[in-house]
Amino acid sequence: MKALVQDIYGTSAVLRLEEVERPEPAAGEVLVRIAAASVNAADWHIMRGEPKVARLMDRSIFGRTGPRERIRGRDFAGTIDAIGPGVAGWQVGDPVLGEDNATLAQYAAVDQSCLARKPDALSFEEAAAMPLAAVTADLCLSRGGVEAGHRVLVIGASGGVGTFAVQLAGVRGATVTAVCSTRNIDMVTSLGAAQVVDYTRDDFTRAGPSYDVVLDLVGNRSLRDLRRVVAAGGRLVLSGGGNPGHGEYLGPIGLMAKAGLFGRILGLRVQIPRAEPDAERLTELADMAARGEIRPVIDRIYPLTDAVEAIRHLEVEHARGKIVVTIE
Q1: Which DSSP symbol is given to 251?
Q2: Quick one: CA dihedral 99, 101, 107, 111, positive or negative?
Q3: Distance between CA 167 and CA 299 in Å, rounded?
């Protein structure tokens, strides 16, 4: 089968499409024939081995000179092609979506615990855009305690997680202010943002209002800057991944460490969610999308033959919403 692989850390230039052996599902796994996958910040973090401190923190993902898993990709949507021993509740031919490893490939062996059933109302491309981004957005809002009447600031509102966060905060009854660049103002407004701050023109941390929940999905501002926009008794939720090539040693981990150490001193209630695959939450979110309550925002769709360009687009050009890769 064809898969997008790498052997050493680096930019998207280290990626290549290669013929590899098709996996066999182990106990508790199913083999999914991938119809579509999407790319996430996690892909370039692992591809680059950034921030470098992460190579010391998680040896299950990061090797010394390259990732332990050669095949890139996390999100997927497709149909079950084979069932491994001990799998219950799934059949060959079932349409599914989920989050696991090595999904930028024609087939992937994935754990049954990460699977959600794809609603008929969603295309494979729409379904593939959801798992990591939608689940992360919903988790961040839950950890922030977002509820009706709250004022919520979403920093990085035009990205994959951000576009879901804006919508899901609105579903919860919150009033959302979105931070994005000029070209994305109309898009985030269409998703339900009541106000928009154009960071290319205005500094949202200076002389602006404060918010009950501040969701930072970028990670390029200081803790003191962020403190200025959190209302008394409010919460700061940190889930920013930084930008490729910036802060390559510590990246947003430095901000999170400072928040853990000094948050209370500065009067901040800080939440740092660790997003994990969550099939139950993903099932609920996919059903919401099928009902039209939220929608995946897809910037561009690439074929697997152009998967290197798909990751380069995410890495360099700051995608609006999600980048999806279709797989034949």
Answers
A1: T
A2: negative
A3: 17
Cα–Cα dist 212/195, whole Å = 15
Report residue 211: phi and psi, to 5°: -135, 150
Q: H or E element: which one contains 143?
A: helix 131-143
Helices 279-290 & 131-143, crossing angle to 10 degrees? 100
* Burial track 171-197 (b if 16+ CB lie within 10 A, e otherwise): ebebbbbbbbeeebbebbeebbbeebb
Both structure tokens of 225: 């800057």
Provide the token pair at 251.
């990246």
Q: Indicate if the alpha-carbon torsion angle 175, 254, 181, 75 is positive or negative.
A: negative
Q: Which two tokens stand for residue 95?
A: 């349409």
DSSP state of 112: G
Average pLDDT, the chain: 92
pLDDT tens-digit map of 265-320? 777 888 888 888 999 999 999 999 999 999 999 999 999 999 999 999 988 877 89
pTM here is 0.94
* 70, 101 contact by CB (below 8 A): no
For residues 219 and 255, is the Cβ–Cβ distance under 8 A?
A: yes
The number of CA neighbours under 13 Å toward the Cβ of 55 is 16
Beta strand 16-19 with 298-303 is: unpaired
**What is the 8-class DSSP label of residue 145?**
T
CA dist., res. 104 & res. 93, Å (int)? 20
Phi, psi of 26, deg, nearest 5: -85, -175
List pLDDT tens digits, range 90-132: 999 999 999 999 999 999 999 999 999 999 999 999 999 999 9
- 140: CB partners within 8 A, 6+ apart: 161, 165, 215, 217, 237, 239, 271, 273
Contact yes or no for 179/204 (Cβ under 8 A): yes
